[in-house]
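User: Hey, quick favor. My workstation is busy. Could you predict this chain's structure for me?
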Amino acid sequence: MSTQFDVLYLNGHYMHCGEPMGAAGAEMRTIHGSYVSERLPEALGVYLATRVLRCACGFQMEIPDQDDAVPG
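Assistant: No problem, here it is.
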């Protein structure tokens, strides 16, 4: 028999296994795309700052880091 746990966002904290998940690091991810156009550059890049959250059980997930968001 397997047990499945979901992630819950409650009172500003991500919860897993009934406990708040803790920060386990940060990353900077990039996404690049290429295309051909006369008016636009050949490649576009998107940069996304993320936070890695980890549960005591070892489960981890990566979420966008809103603290590093640039106002638009």
